[in-house]
Specification:
Elements (H helix, E strand, L loop, with lengths): L16 H34 L19 H17 L2 H14 L5 H16 L8 E6 L6 E6 L5 H7 L3 E7 L7 E7 L4 E2 L4 H9 L4 E2 L3 E2 H11 L43
Antiparallel strand pairs: 1-2, 1-5, 2-3, 3-4, 6-7
Helix pairs in contact: 1-2, 1-7
Length: 269
């Protein structure tokens, strides 16, 4: 017969070596994955920008293929020069002429105008794309969907519907760049106090991120591993009706089973 695990002085079951290793490994994954992924995406983006220009501009006569980083610096300087030029009177007139010419090219103008509108919405300092986060009953009554409030529809739409509408964006999970544009009566929108950033995190994570609590894996999951066994649900109190089995904690404080209550969950490491 195998001996049962001995309880520590505080009433806890000692963590098994396997559970401890799993906890450390998952902690490492949670810490390294965002940093490594962000660094890899940034590296690929910078390498792509660096390779936009010809080898000769990137000092290809000194090193075959050009010197790494020269193309990136050149592109940044070129973007700054364009911005400086467009922000003065002569540059603005030239930009209007250039913009009107591009908008008249068949097929090309559809792509150009769409990208231009998206870029102006995302990069504009005066306005924000999403105003707030809310809930609506969609796709039917009793089912709630997280939406982002944008702008009020134009007067033609308001006159046609004879209703006080608000445009909302219903994103898809886990890719919030696609979704549905809905026009919902203001009275049917339940505004939330969470920020737009928190709402986007919740959508991208598929509900695993909870504003105010973070990722579920960081709380409930790690608590399970510390109680011995990753998939074993933590016991936070004595069984219903058992008030005699709960003792005092290591500090000799509160009784966990008093009045049929449950023991406070362990928040320590």
């Amino acid at each position: 017969m195998s001996a049962e695990p001995r309880e520590a002085p505080g009433g806890k079951v000692p963590e098994r070596p396997g559970a401890r290793l799993r906890r450390h490994f998952l902690t490492g994954i949670l810490v390294l994955t965002p940093a490594v992924t962000a660094a890899w995406i940034l590296y690929k983006l910078l390498a792509w920008v660096d390779g936009l220009l010809w080898d000769k501009i990137r000092l290809g006569w000194i090193r075959p293929g050009g010197i790494p980083g020269v193309g990136l610096v050149t592109v940044v300087i070129l973007i700054l020069l364009v911005g400086i030029l467009v922000n003065n009177y002569v540059g603005r007139r030239f930009y209007r002429l250039w913009d009107s010419l591009l908008a008249r090219i068949p097929l090309f103008n559809k792509i150009y105008l769409a990208i231009k509108q998206i870029a102006e919405s995302l990069l504009s300092r005066e306005t924000s794309v999403f105003r707030a986060v809310g809930l609506i009953e969609y796709p039917r009554k009793g089912i709630w969907s997280l939406v982002f409030l944008t702008e009020t529809p134009n007067q033609e739409i308001l006159d046609a519907t004879r209703n006080d509408l608000r445009s909302v964006f219903l994103p898809t999970t886990p890719n919030p760049t696609s979704g549905f544009l809905l026009m919902v009566p203001e009275k049917e929108i339940h505004r939330l106090s969470m920020s737009v950033e928190e709402g986007l995190k919740s959508v991208i994570s598929g509900g695993a991120y909870v504003p105010g609590r973070g990722m579920a894996l960081e709380t409930e999951g790690f608590r399970r591993s510390r109680r011995g066994g990753w998939w074993r649900r933590a016991r936070v109190g004595p069984p219903a009706g058992d008030t005699a089995g709960a003792g005092t904690d290591a500090a000799g404080g509160d009784r966990a089973g008093k009045a049929g209550g449950s023991a406070p969950p362990d928040s320590g490491g």
